[in-house]
Amino acid sequence: MTIETRLEAHESSTSTFMPSAGDEGNLYRALVLRRQVILAALGLTLFASLCVDLALGPARFGLDQVVTAIFTPGAVDNSLRVILWEIRMPVALMALVVGASLSIAGAQMQTILSNPLASPFTLGISAGASFGAALALAFGVTLIPTLVDYAIPANAFFMAMLTAFAIHLLSMRRGVTIETIVLLGIAMVFIFNSLMALIQFFASQQAVSAVVFWTMGSLTKATWPKLGIAFAVLAVVVPLLARHGWALTAMRLGDAKAESLGVKPRRLRLEVLVMVSLLAAIAVSFVGTIGFVGLVGPHIARLLLGEDQRFFLPGSALCGALMLSVGSVLSKMILPGTIIPIGIITSLVGIPFFLFLILSHKKNAW
User: Would you say 209 and 75 are in contact if contact means Cβ atoms under 8 Å apart?
Assistant: First the structure.
């Protein structure tokens, strides 16, 4: 059921029952309060997951010790403070930032393309980033000469943005529909997967192992500088997307109705595509390929909070961050003493959940 259909149903019901203006105001305030409570609950759950993530590892700590170390670092033992703040905190926070970035990117791709399958993973942006990183890992190729020390993330970022730009250029051709754009993204996935296979065929066994591990996605190499870059991009992009909140909500009614409300769909689609591609490219370039967060996170937020961007945008960020944080916790708990690559966890959790979304009666939300 589309937003348009919902609005028509709502108009039909209001014409039948004719509630007073006061009743409508009370219903709206109750709806807003409900959504605010859901966002607060997601935030508290996310903080709890962060604390559990920090507590787990070769040396385990109590949650009370973790909370104390977060808010009053000087009150805990020096070794505990070093382990939490220097080793575990960048990894745990990177999970939140990357999860939020990928989920927001997926949410806005689904919005501007009106397609529930749109995400950085399905549109080929993640695959492009993987190919760029593989070039550096297997053959030492640096696509941005000035960033030799950061060849892997720089290559991944360059190829991810190049993929997004190619999709945009192809979408500008006459007669190209939104469905065609999604198909172009899927074609990009197959192209880059073929190129990845070619790289692995010619690369040494050691290089192949490094490429395969990178494509699994891992948070273990997160550092404070990398976290700072990823967070800075997220902090810049989110307010820009929020500024287009009303227009993005209107886009769910379709291009024709959005234009009648003063929105310029083609221009907005380009601006949002650039911003979400930047989010996805930065996230993937630092932690590798992580699938399904940008696909499932927005669906969870949509089911809980609806389409209103005032709540859907922060809800998508919280759901994506929570999904990756819980994945980080599970990666430490499944095999004690071994950290399973986070991309494997998100796929194992995301695939059945996504199948549930498809087969569930709630699929009529689209």
Answer: no
Secondary structure element (H or E) that encloses residue 62, with its range: none
Tens of pLDDT, residue by residue over 83-97, are 999 999 999 999 999
CB atoms within 10 A of CB 338: 8
Please, are residues 123 and 154 in contact by the beta-carbon 8 Å criterion? no
Q: How far apart are CA 286 and CA 133, in angstroms?
A: 10
For 19: left if phi > 0, alpha if psi spans -120 to 50, otherwise beta; the answer is beta
Ordered structural domains, the chain, with CATH: 20-365 (1.10.3470.10)
pLDDT digits (tens, 9 = 90+) for 130-171: 899 889 888 888 888 777 777 888 888 888 888 888 887 877
Residue 251 neighbours by CB distance under 10 Å? 26
CB 280 within 8 A of CB 160: yes
User: DSSP states of 273-310 as a string?
Assistant: HHHHHHHHHHHHHHH----SHHHHHHHHHHHHH-S-HH
Radius of gyration of the chain (CA): 22
Helix runs in the chain, H state only: 3-17, 21-55, 63-71, 78-82, 89-113, 125-139, 151-171, 178-202, 205-216, 224-243, 245-251, 255-260, 265-287, 293-305, 309-333, 342-359
Contacts of 5-11 spanning 24+ positions with Cβ under 8 A: 7/253
CB 145 within 8 A of CB 158: no
